[in-house]
């Protein structure tokens, strides 16, 4: 459905409601049948998301220079959020290692990509993928370093998403041909990624723990506020057009990525607190995102 001609309220509804439905299906299913999404999430990260990235970046319509300034803006939003909120950690009584990663690394995959496509149309997919890549590269480099200063960053090059990005850039820059059957297969694999991300988010929300609701509430408020504030402060310097500025503001408003919880669990960095911050933030986004959409649409 083309939502461009609809009223503002209808556009917001048609943007948010499908996401809520898929997340809700995942939540209800997991409540009825306890579901372990670990393998599905791993396959999504290793196969379907890389396929989506390559599909978008290798397409003839993808023009990297068009999104270079937007990518820079996304990078500053991620890193700037951490710097802006760092002084508040002592006041909140929480370790920076625990609180800052969820504030910096947002849900640009599970929520960001489908949200931007629904809000702005298929033309927004390349931009959404670029910002998702920026956030993920920073997460597995800067984020890993925050957790463990001994982390070897060269390991990032082994990630399927990074390999898919590099391959997609090669295909795009050199305009290499891709056989139609291969392109169709890659496109179909990539189309699995977004619904599976949303379904997995719903499953993850069944584990929400309100024991630490106060820090979760602060995270739900500060994550979008810091991201949006930095996006607004950047605009006079970046001079993005209205559409790309809308992408950046929406990117800044996204809640914490579920991946923050998985990484906190891996490094044993107070995963119970991180889970509360992440899940409360994603629930809070149901209120924040419509307001932001009303501002940018």
UniProtKB/TrEMBL annotation:
Its membrane topology: Multi-pass membrane protein
Main localization, broad class: membrane
Keyword GTP-binding: no
InterPro entries assigned to the protein according to its UniProt record, in alphabetical order: Mem_transp_PIN-like, Na+/solute_symporter_sf
Spans through the membrane: 12-30, 67-93, 113-134, 155-174, 186-203, 215-238, 244-261, 273-296
NAD listed as a keyword: no
Pfam family, one: Mem_trans
Gene3D superfamilies, alphabetized: 1.20.1530.20
Subcellular location: Cell membrane
Keywords: Cell membrane, Membrane, Transmembrane, Transmembrane helix, Transport
Family: Belongs to the auxin efflux carrier (TC 2.A.69) family.
Protein name (Swiss-Prot/TrEMBL): AEC family transporter
